[in-house]
Structure to design on (430 residues):
C-alpha cells in the first residue's frame, strides 16, 4: 500500500538575529513563516529568534527548536538531533536581576508549570551579576557581551548537575527607554538591539555543554507607545519574555553525535532545503549547506541592513519573492519536482 | 546531561571579544577559507585557545573581499 503523502523534507529556516530583517527581526514575527514552512516540509529546523514572541509561542511537533550555535553545527554535519517527548527545563537567573523583576520571572516559570504542564526546574542564580553591555557592529548589526561569562557557565553546570536537560537563561539587560534606537525598533524601523548579546549567551552554554538553551532578557516595562509596530507588539504583553523560551525548549531535540544510532535521529545530511533572506546569506549554516549542494531558497522579500547576497558569495540559489513562494518551492522539492519545470521559458536539455 | 565537572576552579577566565575582519578574494572552498581566517584572528585576539563563538559575513567588496563580524571566546592572556 502506498501513501499519498511524500516523506518529510527536513528544511532549515534561518532568519539572522539582530540585523533588522523585515520579517523575523522583531518579536517572533517570523513565526507565521515557520508554521507555513513546517506544513510544507513536515520537518522544519529553526532557531529561537524565529519562534520567540515573549508571551506568544506556537508549539508544533514538526518544528525543531534549535539555538544558533547548535544550528550551525547541525548544518555542518557536526552534530545530530534526537527528538524527545520533553526536556526538563532549568531556569538560570542572573544575580543582577532586582528582587521584584526576579519574582516576575519565577511567577512566569510557575505559570508554565501550572497552566501548560511543562516539566520545569530547578532554578539557579549566578554567583555574580553577569553585566551585559550592548553595542552595534560596523555593519549596524546588534552585538553585546558579558563581563562574566565564567559565572554564566558555572550556573549552567549547577543546573545540569541538578537534573536539568535544557537551560532557559534570564539575564538583566540594560534599560534605555528613551533611546532613539529602541523607539525605532518599537515602531518597526530598527534593529533589535538585544539580539546580538542574547545569541552570545545561548551560544556560550550550547558550545560548552551541548544542551538546548535559549535566552529571555529581564527588562523593566516600557511606557506606552501608541505607534507600536505590530511586529514588536508581542514584547509589550507581559512582565517577562520567558514563556516562549520555556515552551520552545520543552520540546527541543537532544544534541547528539552525528554518528548516534536510533530511529528518528536527524542529521545534517538529511537537510533537503535551506530558506534564508536573500541579502543575509553569509551565515555559517547557509554556507555549510551550500558546500554540500543543499538547495538554498533565497527570500527577496525579507530585506535587512545586510546586502550579502548570492552574487557576492557566488552561491547558486532558488530566488523567491516571499515565504509563501518559498513554501511552494519546499513542497515542490518534497514532491520530487524540478523547480525549473515550474517556470517559463523551459530550456531544452537536447542542446 | 551532566556538566562534566565544570567548576570555578578549573575554569580559566573567559573573555568575549568583538571580531571584525576582511578576508580577501582567493580561490578555494569559501567556508574553509573563512574558518581558517576566523581561527587565526580568534587566536590573535584571545590567545591560543580562543575560538570564534558567533560570526557572519556582513559585507562584500570586489577588492577587499568579505567582511566578517563576530564574537570570539578567549581565555588566558591576550597575545
Amino acid at each position: 500500500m502506498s501513501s499519498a503523502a511524500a516523506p518529510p523534507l527536513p528544511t532549515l529556516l534561518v532568519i539572522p538575529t539582530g540585523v533588522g530583517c523585515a520579517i523575523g527581526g522583531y518579536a517572533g514575527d517570523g513565526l507565521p513563516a515557520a508554521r507555513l514552512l513546517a506544513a510544507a516540509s513536515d520537518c522544519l529546523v529553526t532557531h529561537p529568534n524565529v519562534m520567540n514572541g515573549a508571551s506568544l509561542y506556537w508549539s508544533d511537533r514538526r518544528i525543531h527548536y534549535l539555538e544558533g550555535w547548535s544550528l550551525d553545527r547541525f548544518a555542518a554535519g557536526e552534530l545530530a538531533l534526537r527528538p524527545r517527548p520533553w526536556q526538563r527545563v532549568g531556569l538560570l537567573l542572573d544575580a543582577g536581576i532586582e528582587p521584584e523583576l526576579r519574582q516576575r520571572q519565577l511567577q512566569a516559570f510557575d505559570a508554565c508549570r501550572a497552566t501548560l504542564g511543562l516539566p520545569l526546574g530547578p532554578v539557579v542564580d549566578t554567583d555574580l551579576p553577569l553585566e551585559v553591555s550592548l553595542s552595534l557592529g560596523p555593519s549596524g548589526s546588534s552585538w553585546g557581551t558579558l563581563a562574566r561569562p565564567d559565572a554564566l557557565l558555572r550556573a549552567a553546570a549547577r543546573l545540569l548537575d541538578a537534573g536539568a536537560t535544557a537551560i532557559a537563561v534570564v539575564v538583566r539587560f540594560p534599560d534605555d527607554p528613551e533611546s532613539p534606537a529602541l523607539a525605532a525598533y518599537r515602531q518597526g524601523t530598527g534593529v533589535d538591539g538585544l539580539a546580538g548579546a542574547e545569541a552570545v549567551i545561548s551560544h556560550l552554554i550550547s558550545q560548552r555543554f551541548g544542551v538546548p538553551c535559549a535566552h529571555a532578557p529581564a527588562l523593566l516595562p516600557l511606557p506606552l507607545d501608541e505607534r507600536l509596530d505590530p511586529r514588536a507588539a508581542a514584547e509589550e504583553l507581559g512582565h517577562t519574555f520567558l514563556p516562549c523560551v520555556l515552551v520552545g525548549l520543552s520540546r527541543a531535540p537532544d544534541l547528539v553525535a552525528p554518528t548516534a544510532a536510533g530511529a528518528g535521529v536527524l542529521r545534517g545530511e538529511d537537510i533537503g532545503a535551506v530558506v534564508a533572506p536573500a541579502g543575509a546569506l553569509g551565515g555559517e549554516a547557509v554556507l555549510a549547506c551550500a558546500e554540500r549542494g543543499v538547495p538554498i531558497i533565497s527570500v527577496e522579500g525579507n530585506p535587512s541592513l545586510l546586502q550579502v547576497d548570492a552574487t557576492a558569495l557566488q552561491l547558486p540559489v532558488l530566488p523567491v519573492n516571499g515565504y509563501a513562494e518559498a513554501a511552494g518551492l519546499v513542497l515542490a522539492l518534497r514532491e520530487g519536482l524540478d523547480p525549473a519545470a515550474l517556470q517559463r521559458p523551459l530550456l531544452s536539455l537536447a542542446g | 546531561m551532566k556538566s562534566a565537572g565544570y567548576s570555578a576552579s578549573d575554569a580559566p577566565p573567559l573573555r568575549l571579544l568583538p571580531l571584525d575582519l576582511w578576508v580577501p578574494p582567493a580561490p578555494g572552498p569559501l567556508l574553509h577559507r573563512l574558518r581558517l581566517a576566523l581561527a587565526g584572528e580568534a587566536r590573535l585576539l584571545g590567545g591560543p585557545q580562543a575560538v570564534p563563538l558567533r560570526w557572519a559575513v556582513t559585507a562584500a567588496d570586489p577588492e577587499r573581499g568579505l567582511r566578517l563580524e563576530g564574537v570570539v571566546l578567549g581565555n588566558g592572556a591576550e597575545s
The first strand of chain A starts at residue 11 and ends at 13. Chain A touches chain B through 46 residues (CB under 8 Å). The two ends of chain A are 40 Å apart (CA to CA).
